Amino acid sequence: MKRTMVVFAAVAGMAVALISGVGGANAQERPNVFKDAKSWAFQLKNLGPEEQAKIAASPFDLVVIDSEQFPEDKEIPLTREEVERMKKKPDGSRRLVIAYFSVGEAESYRYYWKPEWTKNRPSWVGKENKEWKENFLVKYWEPTWQNIIFGRPEAFADRILAAGFDGFYIDRADAYYYFGDTPDMRKRMKDFIIKLTNYMRSKKPDVGILVQNAEELLDDPAYVQAIDGIAKEDLLYGITHKEEPNKKSDVDWSGKLLKDAQTKGKKIFVIEYLTKPNYIEDAGKRLSDMGFVMYTGPRGLASLQQQGPRRGPLDPSPANPSANETLTQKATNKAKDLGARAKEKAQAVGEKAKALLKKQPVQ
């Protein structure tokens, strides 16, 4: 009887560990779905048939998109067939397609937003994001919000899984900043994400979980174990939302946390919102040296940049020209244009001089 109780206790303990996400051989051995991704891209708007075709024709190994399109402000979820078409690369190989998913803000253009909330918001819905209109801060630990996010067929995460996406791009995991950035607020976010990812893996064991920013949470082993990668915005440039280099101290602080996560088997992606060729070239080389996967695009993420994967300026390939190759061609074309203009101006000055000489009386 005593032995039976010991065995029962051991089995019960294993079950609790698996449910809570702490320990468990399966969790430790779970392969990282992003492991082989050498390029990535991000597009959150304009996801009609034409843009879907562009995504399918692109060379990227991983693409992050919205799970819905909004033609004329009408919300239309992407179908499983549409998602499947975007998973196939031009060479026939497989692409990962994951859905954007905010855990720290409610979006008033989503199906779950009730009309009356616009004028009379629930107590768990806070202020509107000044930079992203129609996005509202939420008390992410509240059961009402978490029930909207996952756990039912009509919940947001469940709808995304049903549409056949390979995973989730979790945004606003750093929403704890707005509640005092205390250890308790951080813990509530970590607990939420761990619970969310455990649920999603119970539905789809190979689901990929990529979290944007919030690298402060990487000090928790249980949290690190729950995710597959980090997508860091503005690591080298633009932390002030201006196109300028970041302070070395900021780069070093985030870089160390990201490198530590990388050593634990997590894939690190970086998005730099850059337009200046020299900055793009510099970022590509530095991030490549760090083993991070870079993408550059417009901050609004309304279109897909088509330069292809950027592995650094010294790593071109016939199938995938580097950013440097594209930028060099642009620079060459610009130089030719400036040269032609200068030549035209010189010719005009010469003709004017000749005309003036003809008017001068012979001495």
Number of strands: 13
Q: What is the overall shape?
A: globular
In spatial order, strands of the major sheet run 1-2-5-9-10-11-12-13
Helical residue percent band: 40-55%
CATH class type of the largest domain: Alpha Beta
The low-confidence parts are 1-27, 306-342, 356-363
Q: How many separate structural domains? A: 2
CATH topology of the largest domain: TIM Barrel
Order of helices and strands: HHEHEEEHEEEEHHEHEHEHEHEH
User: So how many helices?
Assistant: 11
* Rg value: 26 Å
Strand proportion: 15-25%
Under the CATH scheme, the architecture of the largest domain is Alpha-Beta Barrel
The description of the largest β-sheet is: 8 strands, parallel
Structural class: alpha/beta
Distance between the termini: 130 Å
Average pLDDT:
82
Report on this model:
Helix content is 41%, strand content 15%. It is an alpha/beta fold. It has two domains: 18-312, TIM Barrel; 322-363. It has an eight-stranded parallel β-sheet, with helices on one face. A three-stranded antiparallel β-sheet has the order 6-8-7, with no helix packed on it. A hairpin with a 6-residue loop joins strand 3 (68-69) and strand 4 (76-77). The radius of gyration is 26 Å and the shape is globular. Residues 1-27, 306-342 and 356-363 have low confidence and may be disordered.
Secondary-structure topology with pairs:
Layout: H1 2-20, H2 25-29, E1 40-43, H3 49-57, E2 62-65, E3 68-69, E4 76-77, H4 80-86, E5 96-102, E6 105-107, E7 125-128, E8 135-138, H5 143-149, H6 156-162, E9 167-171, H7 183-203, E10 208-212, H8 221-226, E11 229-233, H9 248-263, E12 267-272, H10 277-290, E13 293-296, H11 323-359
Parallel strand pairs: 1-2, 2-5, 5-9, 9-10, 10-11, 11-12, 12-13
Antiparallel strand pairs: 3-4, 6-8, 7-8
